[in-house]
Amino acid sequence: MDKNKLKHFEELxxxxxxxxxxxxxxxxxxxxxxxxxxxxYYPTHPADAGIEEEVKVTDTILLDNLSRxxxxxxxxxxxxxxxxxxxxxxxxxxxxxxxxxxxPYTRFCKECAEKEEG
Length: 118
Description:
single chain; mainly alpha; 4 helices; elongated
């Protein structure tokens, strides 16, 4: 991959990392329960408590997914620094730029990714 394209993907990954970090920053306090010390003077209906718990579980799953995505982005930036970005970790073939444009932190070509998921 030429230097201009590599620089483009590096910038794309850095912007993506910033977006993910912002989302994590917004979600983490909700999941960790920070700021929940407000006093509610109205009785809580049991259904409301269930909804609140469901939202917290959903937020926890989102936070886990964002954390995983952040690790993949960081790994992709490391691969750029090492000179191995855009090469499938499974088969060693070049990952098409179209795939990298869609999932810039991917480690695998489409075929190997489907085998990993399957």
